[in-house]
Amino acid sequence: MPASRFLIAVFEFVLLIFSLSFHECAHAWMASRLGDQTARMQGRITLNPMYHIDPFGTLILPAMMIFGPLFGGGAMSGFLIGWAKPTPVITRNFKNLVRDDTLVTLAGPVSNLLLAFIGFVGLAVTMMVQGNLPDQDSVVSNVQALQVLCQLAINVNLALFFFNLLPLPPLDGSRIVRHFLPYGALKAYDGMGIFSLILMILFGAPIVRFLMEPTLGLVYLALSHFQAG
Q1: Whose CB has fewer CB within 10 Å in the chain, the N or C terminal residue?
Q2: CA distances (Å), 102 to each of 16, 26, 165, 222, in order?
Q3: How far apart, in whole angstroms, are the C-alpha atoms of residue 72 and residue 68?
Q4: From CA 208, how far away is CA 203, in angstroms rounded?
Q5: What residues are annotated to the active site?
Q6: 175 conformational bin, left if phi > 0, alpha if psi -120 to 50, beta if neither
Q7: pLDDT per residue as tens digits for the range 111-134
């Protein structure tokens, strides 16, 4: 196994943990802005991963997907998915329950779009200036490392954006869907439990892959206009 592949996998894993922490921090920040201080009082408005890590969704499952293929575990290969510990929200603290809860819910996926956009900008800038940089091995290698990091930021955060909008409890998409369900269906929906987790594992990656392929095609089509020389 080449050392470069393992190093990229480590970068991807660390970037995922940061992106998930940023996602949950965005939930907590928006809830605080809209009147619910529950997450703030629990210290969740922070990028410190220790406040956000879910052992299975943040560490075990992503590690299997990232490092598994490097050691022959191809069954878990595919686009990266994962989740962190849900941010506590008490909706009765909101002035407008549906509107405010929806804004808090969307803050997480939007934060991942923001990180993906930052990665896009970083990649575009390095592509534009690459031809004008000194022809030195250290400079070239540093620029290439930055480009890899930006590409990972785009891939990881777009995957998290699509994955978290899946309508499966407790993912963000389910919090939006539940506002439109009748009471009887709502109880069954919230009680999916382990069945929802199984659906995430079995169908999460294929659905994310289906959505990611055309999206990344558009992203790299746009980046082609920034290619130096």
Answers
A1: C
A2: 24, 13, 12, 31
A3: 6
A4: 8
A5: 24
A6: alpha
A7: 999 999 999 999 999 988 876 666
The amino acid that residue 115 corresponds to is L
Asked if 75 and 14 count as a contact pair (C-beta separation under 8 A), the reply is no
Closest CA to 91 of 175, 167, 18: 175
Q: Is-contact 82 58, C-beta < 8 A? A: yes
Is the pLDDT at 94 greater than 80? The verdict is: yes
**Quick one: which of 207, 176, 128, 160 has its CA closest to 61?**
160
The alpha carbon torsion through 208, 214, 219, 225 (nearest 10 deg) reads: 170
Which residue is associated with the tokens 């990881």? 156
Q: Phi and psi dihedrals of 136, rounded to 5?
A: -120, 140
The string of pLDDT tens digits covering residues 165-222 is: 999 998 999 999 999 999 889 889 988 988 998 998 888 888 999 999 999 999 999 9
At 140, which amino acid appears?
V
